[in-house]
């Protein structure tokens, strides 16, 4: 008989939805995280609000509006309010993380420096900063700054003395036998992977590429490990965790995104799921450092986009 991991048991008691090896819990992380058990996740991936402080709409030279991140979930009244928010979830994540676990947090120049400082103050031990170099960044339409072509991922363990997984050989093999660097050249999420409604509008403004999550999860976990995402958005983390034979739980505050994520995760096509006859570390090819990044086998049509809202 299969036992339910304590993280899933707690999530279920809070009303999580899901299936074999995955759950989506709808609600506010600040409220829900304190109710999840200590030391119950092997890997935490967090893609929190950026606090972009966008004041005006942005238009291209042809006057079409840029679909950037201007959502309500990204609005904070001050740096102090944002810092207080981040401190709360980072403290909870550290409590939820197993002593052997790792956390990855992604952000832009707007928030990642604040988060890095908080992480060190809270007791995390930083292992690397990984630069996601976008191979197809959005231009700086007004031409007043450099084109912003990067986001930063902070990879950390629970404390200085803790030990966590790093699948060094796998990552080296995936990089053509050369040690992988901390610069990852991966395109923005697009094509069939990008979830859109029937009019072509993005279902989530901040959907991350699966390739990015694939590298994070493959480098830091083994088969069956429990992955947790406190800001699930469109569900990328848990969908990729499923593809790689890991177990995943995500929390998302907005009802519409929680539904989009659950539909997407439930509809990961069987051919994208890790197969028992394939060695754990070689289920899906990773991109080399050379763009364009490889994306694993995809469904002919995006099932989540078809089913959502
Ligand atoms: C940057 S997006 C995550 C995108 C995600 N990585 C993806 O690939 O789709 C941040 C998400 O966090 C959610 N969020 C913001 N504040 C939250 C909170 N307090 N609790 C739970 N979710 C929250 C937002 O609704 C948004 O969907």
Shape: globular
Give me the side-by-side strand order of the main sheet: 1-2-9-8-3-4-6-5-7
Measured as a percent range, the helix fraction is 25-40%
H/E series, N to C?
HEEHEHEHEEHEHEHEHH
Description:
The protein is an alpha/beta fold. The protein has a single domain, classed as 3-Layer(aba) Sandwich (Rossmann fold). Helix content is 27%, strand content 18%. The protein is built from nine helices and nine strands. The protein has helices at residues 6-13, 29-32, 79-96, 112-122, 168-174, 210-220, 236-243, 255-266, 303-307, and strands spanning 17-19, 22-26, 41-46, 97-107, 125-134, 150-157, 183-186, 226-229, 247-252. The chain has a nine-stranded mixed sheet, with helices on both faces. A hairpin with a 2-residue loop joins β1 (17-19) and β2. The protein binds S-adenosylmethionine. The site of S-adenosylmethionine has 19 residues, from α2 and β9.
